């Protein structure tokens, strides 16, 4: 039998669509003078003491594997951090240090799902959630947070999507791409539905440090939720450490013990050098985080006001570093808008539809970009709107 290369690849993987963000950035690659509001990562370099700690660990010869779950002192530090910042208590044996929040979510899905199990995924959302559910043999069930609710998901919407196959709810607040934050009361209302239907929650709290008006509440801190929450967090966004690939997951012992098997067979452990960097970030990184948050807040205010002034309605995002203005008034689809804006004015943004159906009619603009570039980008976007 003559095999084609296609037949070597699983049907599941063949049918996965590549990330809409990547497709768009291939267009931008090679163009000169482009200002990118596209990438979801801090424009800051990792704070120097954190880099120095990593260098020191190499100099001292810490170059072998760590325990599968991560360095004991780092896990200990993570438990202190989660307790002090988010008011949830875990023991170090309830923590795994992961390869970014990404591997924490992937490991969670592979641990909890049997074939055909459903995971309700609140959209618009980070592009990986649905595919991670699919790759773990589950079925993602998208539920749309709506712009008329400032992209806050309502408990009634979740309840309406629950079937006897539903295993878990996947949420992320502050949200990528909308920046929306749910306050404590709103999370509590969601938690009631979760408890009533005996579901798990995978709570991606990667943007927890980046909130600007209201305090962040962790899903796991709510009454009766610690035992049914897989809390995902990491170093990428708060500590400007995207390239170090370091995250963590906290979960009740019985779940974590099973997750550790998946993590151990698939990944062995997170990078040793990165773990030493993470240790320093948690021990001494607070001042740097506060400085970065202060800077993001100024940029958020500037970019959101600019969009509203030029007639692109934009709600004030409570967290993360994304503005998600509506471009409906232009009559263009989000794909058309983003492609034309890139070609005509050299500004790269992400079309909202790549994050889910209710993202259509919007664009995602990251303001983790210098003020100077943001000013120039806003000038160009305004010129583009006026030319339509
Ligand atoms: N979760 C969300 C909501 C994100 O926006 C991202 C990255 O953009 C990630 C997870 C991935 O984070 P990490 O770099 O820790 O894997």
Automatic annotation (TrEMBL):
BP-aspect Gene Ontology terms: amino acid metabolic process
The protein's name: Aminotransferase
Origin: domain of life: Bacteria
Family designation: Belongs to the class-I pyridoxal-phosphate-dependent aminotransferase family.
Pfam families: Aminotran_1_2
InterPro entries named among the record's database cross-references: Aminotransferase_I/II_large (IPR004839), AspAT/PAT-like (IPR050596), NHTrfase_class1_PyrdxlP-BS (IPR004838), PyrdxlP-dep_Trfase (IPR015424), PyrdxlP-dep_Trfase_major (IPR015421), PyrdxlP-dep_Trfase_small (IPR015422)
GO-annotated molecular function: pyridoxal phosphate binding; transaminase activity
Species per Swiss-Prot/TrEMBL record: Ureibacillus terrenus
């Amino acid at each position: 039998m003559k095999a084609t290369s296609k037949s070597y690849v699983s049907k599941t993987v063949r049918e996965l669509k590549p990330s809409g963000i990547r497709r768009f950035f291939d267009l931008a690659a090679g163009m000169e003078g482009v200002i990118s509001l596209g990438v979801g990562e801090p424009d800051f370099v990792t704070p120097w003491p954190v880099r120095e700690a990593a260098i020191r660990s190499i100099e001292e010869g810490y170059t072998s594997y760590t325990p599968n779950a991560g360095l004991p002192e780092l896990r200990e530090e993570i438990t202190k951090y989660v307790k002090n910042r988010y008011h949830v208590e875990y023991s170090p044996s309830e923590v795994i240090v992961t390869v970014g929040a990404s591997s924490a979510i992937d490991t969670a899905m592979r641990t909890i799902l049997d074939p055909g199990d459903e995971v309700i995924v609140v959209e618009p959302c980070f592009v990986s959630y649905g595919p991670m559910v699919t790759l773990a043999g589950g079925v993602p069930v998208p539920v749309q947070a709506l712009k008329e609710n400032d992209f806050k998901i309502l408990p009634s919407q979740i309840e309406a999507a629950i079937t006897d196959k539903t295993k878990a709810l996947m949420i992320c607040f502050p949200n990528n791409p909308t920046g929306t934050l749910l306050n404590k009361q709103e999370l509590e209302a969601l938690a009631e539905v979760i408890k009533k239907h005996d579901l798990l929650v995978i709570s991606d709290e990667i943007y927890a440090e980046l909130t600007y008006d209201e305090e962040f509440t962790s899903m796991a801190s709510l009454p009766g939720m610690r035992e049914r929450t897989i809390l995902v967090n990491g170093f990428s966004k708060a500590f400007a450490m995207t390239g170090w690939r370091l995250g963590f997951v906290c979960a009740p012992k019985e779940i974590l013990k099973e997750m550790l098997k998946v993590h151990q067979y698939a990944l062995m452990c997170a990078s040793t050098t990165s773990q030493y960097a993470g240790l320093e970030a948690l021990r001494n990184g607070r001042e740097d985080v506060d400085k970065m948050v202060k800077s993001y807040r100024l940029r958020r205010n500037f970019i959101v006001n600019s969009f509203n002034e030029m007639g692109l309605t934009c709600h004030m995002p409570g967290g993360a570093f994304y503005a998600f203005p509506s471009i409906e008034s232009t009559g263009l689809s989000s794909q058309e808008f983003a492609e034309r804006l890139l070609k005509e004015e050299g500004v790269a943004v992400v079309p909202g539809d790549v994050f889910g159906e209710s993202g259509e009619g919007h664009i995602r603009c990251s303001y983790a970009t210098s003020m100077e570039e943001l000013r120039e980008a806003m000038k160009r976007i305004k010129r583009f709107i006026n030319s339509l």
